[in-house]
Design goal:
Elements (H helix, E strand, L loop, with lengths): L5 H25 L5 H22 L10 H7 L5 H5 L4 H4 L1 H4 L11 H24 L6
Helix pairs in contact: 1-2, 1-7, 2-3, 2-7
């Protein structure tokens, strides 16, 4: 890791945070009783951090946003996550809906399982591309 340039080192750190959020989301889902809103929020955060890790590796500045489609759209061609995840709005919704009580329905266990699965797919796609480029999470 010490031979990585600063951008790769920082990107690797973001990808590790993504993996940690996924781990906690998975543990919440395996617990009884489950806390679906927390798992949904952590899943969204994991996907967001994975996409931001990719942008950092590419040295692309990104706005302060939780909009996963907007972040994914900033990636240049060649990132498989762009082709595999063309609509991340369902996962993006948990950035707010899982954290704040409003007039929207509360997330269910099925919502949380779906969110965790999609976030894991985003993370794994980004991590695989890191691996192809010789950059690994710290």
């Amino acid at each position: 890791m010490n031979d990585l340039d600063p951008a790769a080192r920082e990107a690797s750190r973001w990808l590790r945070f993504s993996a940690e959020d996924l781990d906690v989301a998975s543990r919440l889902l395996s617990g009884s009783p489950s806390t679906p809103r927390h798992a949904c929020w952590l899943a969204q955060q994991a996907a967001e951090k994975a996409l931001k890790a990719a942008l950092i590796l590419e040295r692309i500045e990104f706005p302060y946003t939780h909009d996963l489609d907007a972040l994914c759209d900033l990636l240049p061609g060649g990132w498989p996550v762009k082709d595999a995840h063309t609509d991340l709005a369902g996962l993006t919704q948990w950035a707010a809906e899982a954290r704040y009580p409003r007039d929207w329905p509360e997330p269910t266990n099925a919502d949380a399982v779906g969110a965790e699965s999609e976030a894991r797919s985003v993370h794994n796609s980004v991590a695989a591309e890191f691996g192809r480029r010789g950059v690994f999470a710290e």
